[in-house]
UniProtKB/TrEMBL annotation:
One GO molecular-function entry: triose-phosphate isomerase activity
Protein name: Triosephosphate isomerase
One Gene Ontology CC term in the entry: cytosol
PANTHER family named among the record's database cross-references: TRIOSEPHOSPHATE ISOMERASE (PTHR21139)
Pathway: Carbohydrate biosynthesis
Keywords: Isomerase
Keyword Kinase (UniProt): no
Originating species: Coccomyxa viridis
Family matches, as PROSITE patterns: TIM_1 (PS00171), TIM_2 (PS51440)
The family this protein is said to belong to: Belongs to the triosephosphate isomerase family.
Stored InterPro entries: Aldolase_TIM, TIM_sf, TrioseP_Isoase_bac/euk, Triosephosphate_isomerase, Triosephosphate_isomerase_AS
CDD domains: TIM
Matching SUPFAM superfamilies: Triosephosphate isomerase (TIM) (SSF51351)
Subunit organization: Homodimer.
Length: 254
């Protein structure tokens, strides 16, 4: 059973884009068609956020890709949640596997960031996911539980949290999880939320899938009951492909 919330599609632009390419992408997105029953979020780099906030149409919501764990202050190079809300940025992606692995962000740190962001009025896309080695050595569920616990130990109110399941082996590799693999893990996450947080949170929280989602595979993944949307990397840089993904729930897979 999927969440009671709207289908959710996020585009994580990662560290991509120039003034020129971002402007082209925004105008492509402004011409794209998708149903109003889908929440569509785009996450440009910090440096492109003001341009995107100003120029993308109001069908889209804008997200940062990270924020600081505390208040604004003497934290060189960081951006605090209240600075994002001040810039009309309502969402933030936290705990992405690239930050977990490259910057060694741990489960509790990600959870603390999520709690801090929520306290300051941001909505959070909290990412979790196992590596191929963890999956193949039978540690997948332990890893996912640890990551979920990091969020659950810190976050009190889950209303503005979306959980993104992004298996590391599927990110940027072209090796998308099969619809059954995604469904199996999403169902596990939903059960974990029911048992460890609450039935209400489990029923209301959107659990989205990320990792090599594209315009060809999105509809079949979206047909799975517990897949409430997507977090898209590479394909979110192409307006046409991203628009197709935003329409995935409406399409019946061939
Ligand atoms: O990491 C991702 C989204 O956050 C997924 O990236 P790709 O869609 O490029 O595999």
């Amino acid at each position: 059973m999927g969440s009671s919330g709207k289908f959710f599609v996020g585009g994580n632009w990662k560290a991509n884009g120039t003034k020129e390419s971002v402007s082209k992408l925004v105008s492509g997105l402004n011409s794209a068609q998708f149903p109003s029953e889908v929440d569509v979020i785009v996450a440009p780099t910090f440096i492109h956020l003001p341009y995107v906030v100003e120029n993308i149409d109001s069908r889209y919501q804008v997200s940062a890709q990270n924020c600081w764990v505390g208040r604004a202050g003497a934290y060189t190079g960081e951006i605090a949640p209240e600075q994002l809300t001040d810039m009309s940025v309502p969402w933030v992606i936290l705990g992405h596997s690239e930050r977990r692995s490259l910057l060694e962000e741990g489960n509790d740190f990600v959870g603390a960031k999520a709690a801090n962001a929520l306290t300051h009025g941001l909505k959070v896309i909290a990412c979790i996911g196992e590596t191929l080695e963890q999956r193949e050595t039978g540690h997948m569920y332990d890893v996912l539980e640890g990551q979920l616990k990091g969020v659950a130990d810190n976050v009190v109110n889950w209303t503005d949290v979306v959980v993104a399941y992004e298996p590391v082996w599927a990110i940027g590799t072209g090796k998308v999880a099969t619809p059954d693999q995604a469904q199996e893990v999403h169902a596990f996450i939903r059960k974990w939320l029911a048992e460890k947080v609450s039935q209400e949170v489990s029923a209301a929280t959107r659990i989205i899938y990320g990792g090599s989602v594209n315009d060809q595979n999105a509809a079949e993944l979206a047909s799975k009951g517990d897949v409430d949307g997507f977090l898209v990397g590479g394909a979110s840089l192409k307006a046409d492909a991203f628009a197709t993904i935003c329409n995935a729930r409406a399409k019946v897979p061939a």
